[in-house]
Amino acid sequence: MPMTSATGNRPLIYGVTLDEIKEWLVQNEDKAFRAQQIFDWLYVKRVSSFDEMSNVSKELRQKLASEFRIDPLKEITRQESSDGTVKFLFQLIDGHAIETVIMRHNYGNSICVTTQVGCRIGCTFCASTLGGLKRNLDAGEIVAQVLAAQRFLDIDQQRASHVVVMGIGEPFENFDNLMAFLSIINDNRGLNIGQRHITVSTSGIIPKIYEFAEKGGQVNLAISLHAPTTELRTQLMPINRGFPLEKLMEACRHYVAKTGRRISFEYGLFGGQNDQPEHAELLADLIGDMLCHVNLIPVNYVPERDYVRTARNDIFTFKNILDSRGINVTIRREHGSDIAAACGQLRAQHAKETAG
Fold first, then answer.
1. From the candidates 112, 252, 292, 343, which is the catalytic residue?
2. Which segments of 126-187 are extended strands (E)?
3. Which residues bind S-adenosyl-L-methionine (predicted)?
4. What pTM, to 2 d.p., does this model score?
5. Where are the domain boundaries for CATH 1.10.150.530 in the chain?
6. 52 an active-site residue?
7. 201 belongs to an annotated ligand binding site
8. Residue 127 DSSP label
9. Catalytic annotation on 266?
């Protein structure tokens, strides 16, 4: 169990599993059953200080406070869309900023979390990579985002039912903290978010796809694909040089064979770049033999990037071609189109303002 965080400070208690809390209690000559009480205060009652844990002794509360932090993320700003989407910009203890988003669906409230401060993958269409990678988040900093969103939902007695790991950063470059986060939010004695209600998205870190096939359980896997050929994907996503499309498809097929679970492909549509009928046919050729789903994403305009939105008719033409080839395909519903909706965009705006 870590006693320091990525920032060198005391770790957030949200990064500690129930079993690790039990272990810590025993090491500190206390009763292991207290761990369930602490977990209940953290994730069911959702207190914001150890002092609120009224059925925990004062001595134990002091011990907890001396070894762990429970301070919430500091909200820098919040944007609320007319469609119900809520986007938070949070400040971490070291001053870095991250984004978290609540998205409303007919099946529940989905929380999109960030796993890194910045990103080094360098996708040419993404605001998250502007400024590069600063550091990985601790597991507790990722869990804290779900809790912060849930506290906001508590106001209207609503629940976070789904989590998507699709915010700033490449989750598979922060694999150990990602897996700890998944374990903590899935625990049925706490937030109790089912594995099948959690989706992790990767740009294609091939070795970790194989590892996730072994360790990911029933958590859904999504691949940021965005191109049907290796040449075009390299233009859009430089990561394709290190993890080429052909090898990525091998890893995806292994994942499906190993887990029996459907894989999702995220395909952003960029006007005149990857959205023509021939691209749809090539995409169908590439993935048509796989148990999969394609999520078409009309691109959000990012001022720092030079991509334009695909015309509405072209979006449906692309979808219809995939449909005709027997591929399960949907068009992602827009969220927050009237706010800084693109991933990393609010953080980039904040960085400009503070630098200025």
1. 343
2. 133-136, 160-165
3. 169-170, 201, 224-226, 300
4. 0.91
5. 17-67
6. no
7. yes
8. S
9. no
